[in-house]
Amino acid sequence: MTGTLKKYLMWFANEHLDFRLQPFWIAELSNEEDVKRLASRSVTLRYGIELWSHSDNPIHFHDTLRRLPSNVLEPYARPEVSFKVKVEVFGSSQTQEEKVQRIESFSYLGLRGPVKLNKPDVAFQYIEFYGLDDKNVPDQPYDYYFGRIVTEGQRDLISKLSLKKRIFIGNTSMDSQLSLIMANQGLVKNGSFVFDPFVGSGSLLVAAAQFGGYVLGADIDYLMLHGRSAPTRKQARHKPRHEESVMANMKQYGLSSQYVDLVIADFSLPLWSKTLKLDAIITDPPYGVREAMERLGTTKENKKISEKHLATHMPSKVQYTMTQLLHDLLVFAARHLRIDGRLVTWVPVIRSEYEETNLPKHECLRLLDNSEQILSTNASRRLLTYEKLKEPMVGY
């Protein structure tokens, strides 16, 4: 520890492992407010903990706690301060009796206040880390941690924005946690202008709006954007359908002020002004599995629509390959992102054939992050985050 920096333990949830660092990270920060600022945006963080003791040796671990300066412990040991001690055995298991024994092993701290399991004045966290391989659990923990819980991450947003409770969803609506992770990787903040060119039911826009972004979307699917596609929920297929739209979702979460608009558009035929500048492009392109990969077009030659059918005519579509789509997406990002703006997009891959050198590239964009979500033995999708470095050449 240097200067006035304090050590804090950042404890991450044990899910979406490729989208976060190791489960326990020790950070040196100036004060609790820094911890709270970090936690205010993290949906993978469980707790930020003021670290009082850490060791791979139980004797040294408890000796450090016994020597804790009185000015650190005393504010939380007073008779009027209620407390509880939480126990986590990471990578192993414990009985209730073993849990109580672990809690009682800290009796030397001399906490004089009442034990209060629900909303205590202060909560302490004890962690034994047995590693990440649940098939080879060691006899003794690799690490011991103890500290005071300072703050929680934004895990409650996962439940708040859950698709199970959402008014309008589609076959490929992104789950709330991944949507929030994408918004974070896009650095969405208050006032950011965010665009999803394959918006679908708008899950990514909901997450971006939750973090203060102003959101704009486009999609080629007329029925989806107008809430006229077949109901996704089986139990709702025979019920009358009331307002179902992206805007309805925004209203549901109190985010309608962040909603800019939706546009029915073919991404392969850009309609945007050259002056359009975006802070982030966050998208989940169609892969051709549950959602078709299409663009406007026809295979028929010299096809002319009669004048009487023009008003109700819906343009036909032709195949839009993933290679073409990703090329167009990176070109669009290079043109319309601000410098340092970010493109966050999914790319499907066949795992046995995957090579990072084959990922889409553009001279104006730098690949910052590449995380994998395994879908099956053979298939996965990778979440790519690009940052814009420079403007493209004139006329490009």
Automatic annotation (TrEMBL):
Q: Does the keyword Cytoplasm apply?
A: yes
Q: What protein family is recorded?
A: Belongs to the class I-like SAM-binding methyltransferase superfamily. TRM11 methyltransferase family.
Q: What is its EC number?
A: 2.1.1.214
Q: Which residues form the Ribosomal RNA large subunit methyltransferase K/L-like methyltransferase domain?
A: 165-304
Q: How does it assemble?
A: Part of the heterodimeric TRMT11-TRM112 methyltransferase complex; this complex forms an active tRNA methyltransferase, where TRMT112 acts as an activator of the catalytic subunit TRMT11.
Highest taxon above the source species: Eukaryota
Every tRNA (guanine(10)-N(2))-methyltransferase TRMT11 N-terminal domain range: 22-155
Q: What is this protein called?
A: tRNA (guanine(10)-N(2))-methyltransferase TRMT11
Which InterPro entries would you find in this protein's record?
DNA_methylase_N6_adenine_CS, RlmKL-like_Mtase, SAM-dependent_MTases_sf, TRMT11, TRMT11_N
Function, as annotated, reads: Catalytic subunit of the TRMT11-TRM112 methyltransferase complex, that specifically mediates the S-adenosyl-L-methionine-dependent N(2)-methylation of guanosine nucleotide at position 10 (m2G10) in tRNAs. This is one of the major tRNA (guanine-N(2))-methyltransferases.
User: Where do transmembrane segments lie in this chain?
Assistant: none
Q: Which GO terms describe its biological process?
A: methylation; tRNA processing
Give, as one word, the top-level EC class: transferase
Organism of derivation: Nesidiocoris tenuis
Q: Please give the catalytic activity noted in the UniProt record.
A: guanosine(10) in tRNA + S-adenosyl-L-methionine = N(2)-methylguanosine(10) in tRNA + S-adenosyl-L-homocysteine + H(+)
Main location (coarse class): cytoplasm
What Gene Ontology molecular-function terms does this entry list?
tRNA (guanine(10)-N2)-methyltransferase activity; tRNA binding
Keywords, A to Z, come to: Cytoplasm, Methyltransferase, RNA-binding, S-adenosyl-L-methionine, Transferase, tRNA processing, tRNA-binding
Gene Ontology cellular component? cytoplasm; tRNA methyltransferase complex
Statement: the UniProt record of this protein carries the keyword Plastid = no
Segments forming a coiled coil:
none
Give its localization.
Cytoplasm
